[in-house]
Amino acid sequence: MPGCFRLAGCVWISPAGREYSLSPATRSLLTTLDEPLLVRGYFSAKTHPLLAPLVPRIRDLLTEYALASDGKVKVEVIDPLTDPDKEAEANQTYGIKPTPLQAADRYGASVVNAYFNLLVRYGDQNVVLNFQDLIEVKAAANGQPDVRLRNLEYDLTRAIKKAVYGFQSIETVLASLEQPAALTLYTTPNTLPEQLQVLPATIAKVAQEIAATSAGKFTFQQLQVGAPGAPTSDELAQQFGLRPFQASFFSPDLYYLHMVLSSGGESQVLFPAGDLSEASVRATLETALKRGAKGFLKVVGIWTPPDVPEQDMFGQQTQSFKSYTKIAEVLRENYTVQPVDLATGQVAAMWMCCCWSRRKASRKRICLPLINI
After folding, report:
1. Are 306 and 193 found together in one domain?
2. What is the pLDDT of residue 166?
3. Residue 132: what pLDDT?
4. pLDDT tens, residue by residue, 124-165
5. Phi and psi at residue 315, in whole multiples of 5°?
6. In angstroms, rounded to a whole number, what is the distance separating the alpha carbons of residues 180 and 178?
7. What is the pLDDT of residue 177?
8. CA distances from 175 to 4, 181, 199, 268, 281 (A)
9. Is the distance from CB of 236 to CB of 163 less than 8 angstroms?
10. Which residues, other chains included, contact 235 with Cβ-Cβ below 8 Å and sequence gap of 6+?
11. Range of 104's domain?
12. Which of 7, 32, 41, 273 could lock 295 by a disulfide, CB 3.0 to 4.6 Å apart?
């Protein structure tokens, strides 16, 4: 790029002063806004000398958000220390407090209480990015601290997405779907552990409540794996990558308790989480439906090698207990998670991060390709 240079490995600065160019993912999210969105910066005029140069860069990025939103994003930058009403609102309503920062110069050390926060407000939802969320500190070669912004666009867009999706009612989300969503619960009632016996009924109740207010945009069915007219274990493994759980450590019984949410040719595999209450099940379903709504930012692909049967203490082969359902569950809170087949040795248009256990006994590896959409 002629006339430009790169700063801190991640920011382009041009002579025209347009430091930031928003990503397509951010612009796509901004086009989904149905209500005005407020982004307010709380920055003290009297602050740490290493933080002061970062404030104009934050202002520039906020301006780009406002310009890209077609008037939907309102940007404010204030110094709460000069406006008692705004400071009281920040403290009492949003829990925003000044951070004590120690600075040293040739005259000695001093402590300054400074604001360095961003507030994102959409409807009745608000998300606060504080001092620790916005910056990172590293030691420079001369021993002095190197203070820089983190991935500011990513952090801010994630905060906006959290506020926007938190504000959307499930009815609004369903109405925005281009094609209806269908939830299927696959179970094996005869082999369910005792503590899970009531869970299918709980899932059915929550799903039917959502379906009743969906105007036909959400349907639910429950199928017993292997029953006449229902898929077999092999068919579920081939179509969705589903594998049964082992009922207990010493039990040979296997069971299914898997939810598959399908919409627009895409499917998400869901697992009950949390305390397995109605509220927990509803949160799982609503989060999955919101992930399918327009404007979602990322898709994460997970790959693990095929399970290799292990031997128990009696020398008998048993199903491997190694599972990555927990990491998939955590990722699903913010991403659409899809299985990835690496049989060809390639994953097109993806940036891949591979993580694996250092223990010799556990040689599975997880590859997390991130796809911008």
Report:
1. no
2. 75
3. 86
4. 788 999 988 898 887 767 667 778 888 899 999 999 988 887
5. 85, 5
6. 7
7. 83
8. 45, 11, 28, 19, 21
9. no
10. none
11. 5-167
12. 32
DSSP state of 126: E
pLDDT of residue 276: 81
Mean pLDDT in order along the chain per 10 residues (373 residues): 30 38 89 91 90 92 94 95 92 89 70 91 89 82 77 92 80 83 94 91 94 93 92 92 86 91 87 78 85 60 69 60 64 66 58 40 41 34
Question: In terms of DSSP bridges, do strands 135-139 and 181-187 run parallel, antiparallel, or are they unpaired?
Answer: unpaired
Indicate if 226 and 239 belong to the same structural domain. Answer: yes
Q: Which two tokens stand for residue 148?
A: 């820089």
**What angle do the packed helices 199-212 and 278-291 form, to 10 degrees?**
50
Residues 96 and 208 in one domain: no
Task: List the structure tokens of 20.
Answer: 């930031």
3-class secondary structure for 5-38? Answer: EEECCCEEECCCCCCCCCCHHHHHHHCCCCCCEE
Q: What is the pLDDT of residue 268?
A: 86
Question: What confidence score (pLDDT) does residue 72 get?
Answer: 94
Tell me what pLDDT residue 119 has. Answer: 96
Q: Phi then psi for 123, rounded to 5 degrees? A: 60, -125
Burial (CB < 10 A; 0-12, 13-18, 19+), residue 251, is exposed
Per the rule left: phi > 0, alpha: psi between -120 and 50, beta: everything else, 89 is alpha
User: Of 247, 262, 291, which residue sits at a domain end?
Assistant: 291
Residue that has been written with the tokens 């666009």 in this structure: 153
Q: What are the two backbone dihedrals, phi and then psi, of residue 279, each rounded to the nearest 5 degrees?
A: -65, -40
Closest CA to 100 of 90, 117, 115, 82: 115
Q: Is 308 exposed, middle or buried (0-12, 13-18, 19+ CB in 10 A)?
A: exposed
CA distance 196 to 194: 5
| pLDDT given at position 100 | 87
Number of domains making up the chain: 3
Instruction: Return the amino acid letter for 111.
Output: V
Q: By three-state DSSP, how is residue 336 classified?
A: strand
Do 174 and 289 meet the contact criterion of CB atoms below 8 Å apart? yes
Tell if the pTM clears 0.85, that is, is over it: no
For residues 284 and 272, is the Cβ–Cβ distance under 8 A? yes
Contact 48/83 with Cβ under 8 angstroms? no
